[in-house]
Amino acid sequence: MQQTKRYQITKRVSLISGLTNALLAIMKLIIGSIGQSAALVADGLHSFSDLLSDGLVIIAAKAGSRGPDTDHPYGHRRIETLATIVIALLLLIIGGGIIVEMGLRLLHHETLPHPSLSVLLAALISIITNELLYRYNLSAGNKIQSKLLIANAWHNRSDAFSSLITLLTAGGAFFGVRFLDPIGAIIIAAFILRMGIKMIYESVNELIDTAADPTTVKQLQATINECEDVVSAHQIRTRMHGNNILVDGHILVSPTISVSEGHFIGDNVKNILMQSHSAVSDVTVHIDSEDDNDEQKSFHLPHRSQIITLLQQHCRHLPGIDSILELNLHYLNERISIEIVLPLGFSKTHDPITLQNDYQQAMKSVDAVDSIKLLFMP
Question: Does 173 score more than 80 pLDDT?
């Protein structure tokens, strides 16, 4: 989905949620104060925390909608993650403040007030409204795969639960058990704290490049293994970037194909992964000619320029050494297989098998060389 469209949906949903939360918060704070219900006042503060989060959602979504640039090659989606942490910290502050205040009230329980019937009505309205907001935000969040909107949806669900607690505890206080009202406020605050801690935990995990869940990783590996010309996939690594997944992995292909064919296979794997898994936004594929899970060490082997020098030294007396058309090197099993392409004329003036054996014998003393094969072309 285009970032601009994604932002427009986020903005519309957040504005509707923000306006509704503002009205609910004002209603609960006013009625809670007049109706003498600490639980409803706490519930109102919870609604104000959602109002703040709605504003942060719009700001963060705007910034996160910007595409990749020179300084941020993977885009700006983690701005949403940082905003989620800010929202969570606000929840912790609000929840902690409520608990301290209600604890002090319980110490002076003889002065606890008697909530009015209007408190119960306000709590009921809040339950219904916040449940509707939860479903609205969650649907939009799933549609555009926005963790920020989904997190905001759960704020609305938490408001619905806190209003339910308000209804029960304020109702108990209304019928004479007055200490239930501050206890209800403490329960609401504990729920706010729990949500804040959970959001921080998940967001921090994302910022430190936590992998996608094991089931998703297995699905990604299975998709790669099903791609044409892929022998197997291994060392599949993932990291979360906002609601997106960045993938890198190794694929094993036939050891004698060309570089361009290996590149083609890698591009095919990338395209299939991104088409099959909507959350995958970027894929890096490493092409292996052999399984490097075996920790085979080939870095000590001579490079092409060194091989050419060795051929000139050891095969300088052999026909064709100065007429090589192509030189193909295959680094396999910690040794090198060499393919030498000579002009077709040498196959007519020399026995190909004998000439190949001569080259093989000349390079026998070079431990890095496994075999030499001669090919002839016009």
Answer: no
Q: Given this model, what pLDDT does residue 247 score?
A: 92
Of 207, 228, 245, the last residue of a domain is 207
Kindly report which listed range (38-52, 70-84, 90-104) carries the lowest average pLDDT score: 70-84
Statement to judge: residues 139 and 17 lie in one domain: yes
Contact 26, 120 (CB under 8 A): no
In a domain, 325, yes or no: yes
What's the pLDDT score for residue 279? 80
- Length of the chain (residues): 378
Q: Give the model confidence (pLDDT) of 243-284 as tens digits.
A: 678 899 999 998 888 889 989 999 999 999 998 887 888 899
Whole-angstrom Cα Rg for the chain: 34
Burial category of 232 from C-beta neighbours within 10 Å (exposed 0-12, middle 13-18, buried 19 and up) = middle
Domain residue limits at 233: 214-294
The rounded percent of the chain whose pLDDT value lies above 70 is: 85
Claim to verify: residue 144 and residue 177 sit in the same structural domain: yes
Question: Are 151 and 30 in the same domain?
Answer: yes
How many other C-beta atoms can be found within 10 angstroms of the C-beta atom of residue 303?
10
Question: Does any domain span residue 299?
Answer: no
Residue 187 to residues 37, 165, 181, 182, 350, Cα–Cα distance (Å)? 14, 8, 10, 9, 93
The answer on 288 and 156 residing in a single domain is no
SS3 helix, strand, coil % of the chain, rounded to 5? 60, 15, 25
Q: Residues 173, 178, 181, 187: is their CA dihedral positive or negative?
A: negative
Say yes or no: 115 and 223 in one domain. no
Same domain as 268, residue 165? no
Cα–Cα distances in Å, from 264 out to 86, 258, 284, 287, 335? 44, 10, 13, 10, 26
Residues 315-324: tens digit of each pLDDT: 999 999 999 9
Q: What is the DSSP letter of 211?
A: P
Among 245, 267, 294, the domain boundary falls at: 294
Q: Which two tokens stand for residue 101?
A: 């205040």
